[in-house]
Write a structure and sequence with these properties.
- 0% of the residues lie in helices and 67% in strands.
- The protein has a seven-stranded mixed β-sheet, with no helix packed on it.
- The chain has no helices and twelve strands.
- The chain is mostly beta strands.
- The relative contact order is 0.26.
């Protein structure tokens, strides 16, 4: 957690993550399997999270101002609103949340 600055997590394999910044970008490359809770927050900044394509995860990604997207991960859409996507990949065993007020938010396969 930081007030000003970027957060980068690479080749991480853990059950739980909470990464938050007020001003800065959050980037993470998670190795599977995902089994816990993964939370990524920014007030002003982009969030880019990579997970294994075969992950079993329920996810929520949202921004107030910016772009959002999910790519390379097969999932069932629960909700796709203006700047919010909720979905489930596999059985949805893990939970993942990415939110920012001003910035782009992406969930991609690594």
């Amino acid at each position: 957690e930081t007030t000003t600055g970027n957060i980068a997590l690479w080749s991480v394999k853990t059950d739980n993550i909470y990464a938050s910044t007020v001003t800065g970008d959050v980037s993470a490359n998670l190795n599977g399997p995902l089994i816990g809770s993964y939370v990524f927050r920014a007030t002003t900044g982009n969030i880019n999270v990579l997970i294994p394509a075969n992950s079993s995860v329920s996810f929520y990604i949202a921004t107030t101002t910016g772009s959002i997207g999910v790519s390379g991960i097969p999932y069932n859409m629960i909700s796709n609103q203006n700047q919010l996507i909720k979905g489930v990949a596999g059985s949805g065993m893990a939970s993942l949340s990415e939110t920012t007020t001003s910035g782009n938010v992406f969930l991609r396969a690594n």
